Amino acid sequence: MSARRPTIVLITVAVILTTAAAVLRLVVAPNATKLPGDTDQTVHYAGEATLLDSDALRAGDTAHALRSGVPITVDRRVRVTSTHGDTAVLEDVLTVHAGEQSLPSSKTYAIDRGSRKGTSPPASTPVEPSRGALSAAFPPEAAQDDSYTYYDATTRSIVPVRYTGTAQREGREVNVYEIKVSAPVKDPETLEPLPSALPKKLVASLVPGLDSPAGARVTPAALSALPDPVPLGYLGRSTLVAYVDQQTGIAIDQSVSRRVVATTSVAGAQTPLMPVSAFSFEVTPESVGDLGDRAASAGLMLTLQTGIAPLALTVVAAVLVLVAFRLGRVAGVAASGGRGRGR
User: pTM score, two decimals?
Assistant: First the structure.
């Protein structure tokens, strides 16, 4: 009986360790890759902008209607405000600082905590219509292909994400994705400060500065046929390049270019008249370093939870079973020897 007791104990411990390894691999590991409910991250950017001076434009001073080469800094804060099972409500606040002027923009998304794609929001929670598309984050171990789509809040359109290859940032392997948007502006927050129409005389003063296709279209006859004031639409064009950590999905580096162009319908075709805003910025070196550190820390935790810990527990369990097996054999041999001497 005393020889069997250690064997039973070892096998019992081995079973417990194997069960723990399975729980880590099948339960804890999948949860470890979900977007945490306490996510709250701020990233800083720097670049330059072209901004519309509405007062100069209304006064007909087209030469000074645009201020170009304005240095800007940008703060982007992404935080989870609540979770509902596998759904997170995420607030994405982007604030552009140009001198003493601040231009905040706030969007709210409902996203799947695993895939990071837009999903159905909780009841009575107003969110952007981003269902099925990425908006503010990539998932861990993101696919190296063109299978993702992206929701652009300025145009409220969903566009393809193009995978362009791999690179390195802060010693981490990253996937590189490019997103391009060209669609009518639909975001009320963007449209609110922009004029809905311009006097025909003012539009006429813009014609000499139009590019060749637009200038050729806005002939004196076409201009004469336009109503006064001339109704305006707006086109949003942007390019975003993201360097996404392969393991954790953290975007360690990004570059962003965004333009809003005033347009009007000439002979049935939307014709660009002038840019009203243009922003070009990228993540600051300090934020790139911080994001690289976060990716390294998060990656280490993922490796421990999804790989090393389950493997270590399994190996220890196997060793315990082996020891139990050998103890059982030794006990058996000893018992056989004792019976032989008794005869």
Answer: 0.81
